[in-house]
Amino acid sequence: MQAIILAGGFGTRLAPLTYTKAKPMLPLLNKPMISYLIKALPSGTEIIVAANYKKEQLEEYFDANGINAIVNPEPKPLGTAGAVKNASRYINGTFMVLNGDIISSLNIRKFIQYHIKKKAKITISLWPVKNVEQFGVVDIDKDGRIKKFVEKPLRHEAPSNLINAGAYCIDYEILDYIPDGKFTSMEMEIFPRVIEDGLPFYGYSFNGYWIDVGRMESYIEANKILLKKNGLKALIGENCMMKGSVKESSIGNDCIIGENSEVKSSILYENVKVGENAKIENSIVGSNVVVRKGAIIKNSIVGDGEIIEGNIENKRVWSKEMPKGYPKKQIGNVVRNAKI
What we know:
By secondary structure, the protein is α/β, with parallel strands linked by helices. It has helices at about 15-20, 35-40, 55-65, 80-85, 110-115, 185-195, 215-230, and strands at about 1-5, 25-30, 30, 45-50, 70-75, 95-100, 100-105, 120-130, 135-140, 145-150, 160-170, 200-205, 210, 235, 240, 245, 250, 255, 260-265, 265-270, 275, 280, 285, 290, 295-300, 300, 305-310, 310-315, 315.
């Protein structure tokens, strides 16, 4: 079976981190985000990564780690369905589609087995939410067959509390629904047509954890979830000098945390130098950053190579020019109709 990992977006909501790194390469517990998806795939799965922006970083990572994956470039943003059709030459049967920035406890083997058991044409993963008013939920029968999607219903009118969780198992014939070379949404265009045509379309709900690592807050939350899952209060990389305190955070390799400094609920990339009496909280700090003595960083994202003095709160810190070709607003693969 093939698995297509959608990794073609710019990750604009996590800029300036994504000015220098492909979003799938952003670290969680000091490992690239995409590595967690690859690890979750059943043995023998053929991996196809739909990528564009900074795809060479993905290629270098796969080569360096002996990962047999095809990086399939998108000539332009094609949407979730368009990216799949663009990779169709590698598909020879039932296949998976996975959003590259979803971290979850989905058991992919059981998910595939469910799809086969139901003789479905499409099966999507589902996750329960409390605030249904903010999402698109599914209208699903007792057998798990999805009848329709309902966008942002009132709580008392919601047919369920289950949202599209960004993993799909799809039969080969569904490729015929997708036009060539055109920006097409799997969620907004293809799924409704398949349901309207009466083809078996099922949902698979699961327990554990699920998070869309699309914003600073969810990125930090994903890091905390993985720390807890691994029984860790914090993760310290190799060759670090730690003289301060670190809680619910991950620290990259070759970092220095100065005396009496505090790092809480944060992610620090490699080679970050934190001076004495500094505080970093609910923040993400890029590679090769210097945090001066007594500086405070809260609820902020600091790009690679910055020097921080004084207090920074609710900021995105980037003192250099924006990379050429980087968009000023979000474009590319919007994977779910679940979250707007």
